[in-house]
């Protein structure tokens, strides 16, 4: 999944091609195992469920609006414009998933390694290009997220293995978007943003964050998720915060 994911309740900005559960910053100490949920008081557990239920009442496009609103260059954009862009990017990602070969049938373009330490930085996955393209999957954060799905009763939305599968599918989508000029142009044209107009000449503009939304939508469609990965990431951020404060 993508790094630029909305926390609960407000969105957080992150770089593309790294799946994060929170914004970048100095390492912080966080619970390291799924057993951490058992340490929550009954009141804190119910408050977490209530907060996540309120998140679930938002539609997936709203999470896209929050992501874009938290992206540099969009701070003063009209919310209606952000909603149009979010809806267009999400639709594009779903269509890309429908037209592309199944991710399971296509070798991942990067080496995939599993490691730990993601909870210290609130990372689900991280992409590095050197010395060779590599996707690091942080199994501690993924395990905590999977357990959160059970705590919230969201298995109908996120089948077992959703976080790992969605993180890989997200990176696969970035490969399709960034290494295929025709696909990049198609997304740009779908958004319809104009960077410059000189008489009858129109220069299409790049919409920062749109590729993240398309990749999230692609991952959700490929993995058969009932809701956007952005909802689960926002819930995970709320859970980590609750665990840290309890």
From TrEMBL:
Residues covered by region (Disordered): 1-33
Biased composition (Pro residues): 1-10
Composition bias type Low complexity, residue spans: 11-26
Name of protein: HEXXH motif-containing protein
Source organism of the structure: Streptomyces cavourensis
């Amino acid at each position: 999944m993508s790094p630029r994911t909305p926390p609960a309740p407000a969105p957080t900005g992150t770089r593309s091609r790294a799946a994060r559960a929170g914004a970048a910053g100095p390492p912080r100490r966080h619970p390291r195992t799924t057993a951490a949920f058992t340490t929550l008081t009954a009141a804190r557990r119910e408050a977490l469920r209530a907060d996540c239920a309120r998140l679930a009442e938002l539609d997936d496009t709203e999470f896209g609006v929050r992501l874009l609103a938290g992206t540099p260059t969009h701070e003063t954009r009209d919310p209606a414009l952000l909603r149009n862009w979010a809806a267009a990017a999400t639709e594009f990602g779903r269509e890309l998933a429908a037209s592309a070969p199944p991710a399971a049938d296509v070798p991942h373009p990067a080496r995939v390694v599993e490691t730990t330490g993601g909870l210290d930085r609130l990372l689900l996955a991280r992409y590095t290009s050197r010395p060779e393209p590599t996707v690091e999957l942080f199994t501690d954060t993924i395990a905590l997220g999977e357990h959160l799905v059970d705590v919230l009763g969201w298995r109908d939305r996120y089948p077992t293995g959703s976080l790992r599968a969605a993180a890989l599918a997200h990176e696969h989508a970035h490969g399709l978007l960034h290494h295929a000029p025709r696909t990049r142009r198609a997304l740009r044209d779908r958004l319809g943003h104009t960077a410059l107009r000189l008489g009858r000449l129109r220069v299409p503009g790049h919409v920062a964050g749109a590729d993240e939304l398309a990749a999230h939508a692609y991952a959700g469609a490929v993995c058969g998720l009932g809701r956007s990965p952005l909802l689960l990431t926002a819930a995970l951020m709320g859970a980590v915060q609750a665990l840290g404060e309890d």
